[in-house]
């Protein structure tokens, strides 16, 4: 884990880049952090060096948990919450007051009351249970009220700050926001993806190993809805993988590139051309980039929709594709069965609604079967991790990555600056 003395200037530098995408928190070069200012200690190291008793420790964590589509409140998978327990508990045992700070979704600088981009209220109760202590929450992450709450903390208290992305500055390197955070604490602990602690060690071992020196054939199963974030990953996976299986809402952008009628399915028009290029690129490299041959259609985006199964090339104009079909799953089974390393990131369909969960759950099961026969299997991304856990298969894959976007960046072949900084240490 990474510890930085919370002098305003250092925090300013560290907090500047606190978006998941800009994982350059710890990039000593770009932030001109001197080795003295940025101490690369683990928690035990810090506790041995300074007396944390009664000190405020601001901890950057990743609380991006999935919420139930039914009520927009219930946490459907607490993997990320459980991931912060060891560090938090350690600090509390040392008498520190822990201030937790995380972004939640993408509110883009606006205050959103509820849901995936909203307030962090849904994690309060689960955190209380997991940590076994009271968790107070404030409705902002900086400002006078927050400062007062931070000052009032007593030995062993936990304070959760509001979704940092309610402030535009969170993704825009705003020094004011960073200075505001700097007023809250004596020490800064990085326990999101880039900390050199328990999480990162595991992430690196599996993810880097899987991509740089895989047991071949290497297969990536990529799903989800956000084409814009997945295409760069697919592009670099084409350089590394033997097989790439695509699912989720993004497949319709590929079908569009093939000239298919996709009905009312989701599409990101501005990426249609790039999707077409990627298919060509894969073909030239001899990489199997496989699109689902059939899909589950719905007449509306709802749990009680009428459904039908159709060939991807025969989607009727009024319908929308919300999951991959049975023929696809047979084909995926065959391909996965031939591979020795399999990475799964992003759901195959709208798995939050039962009629469209089969694709994702089946892929989770295929991952478990592959693990049983000795393949290395890695699941990354909040939704796919949730699906694997929902299916009760969390302990039947080699590695569950809590890194979310960061794990995708690793797959993409980007060196995370935080990791680079560590290697230099
Ligand atoms: P992402 O954050 O890009 O990994 O996307 C995850 C989301 O994609 C989940 O909430 C799914 O419900 C959604 N999704 C998956 N397949 C589809 C689809 N065919 N149409 C619409 N949304 C989808």
TrEMBL record:
It comes from the Eukaryota. ATP binds at residues 230, 321, 352, 381-384. Its cofactor is Mg(2+). Pathway: Carbohydrate degradation; glycolysis; pyruvate from D-glyceraldehyde 3-phosphate: step 2/5. The keyword Acetylation does not apply. It catalyses: (2R)-3-phosphoglycerate + ATP = (2R)-3-phospho-glyceroyl phosphate + ADP. It is an enzyme of class 2 (transferase). Gene3D superfamilies: Phosphoglycerate kinase, N-terminal domain. InterPro entries: Phosphoglycerate_kinase, Phosphoglycerate_kinase_CS, Phosphoglycerate_kinase_N, Phosphoglycerate_kinase_sf. Pfam families: PGK. Its EC number is 2.7.2.3. GO terms for molecular function: ATP binding; phosphoglycerate kinase activity. Keywords: ATP-binding, Kinase, Magnesium, Nucleotide-binding, Transferase. Monomer. Belongs to the phosphoglycerate kinase family. This is Phosphoglycerate kinase. The lineage of its organism: Eukaryota, Sar, Stramenopiles, Ochrophyta, Bacillariophyta.
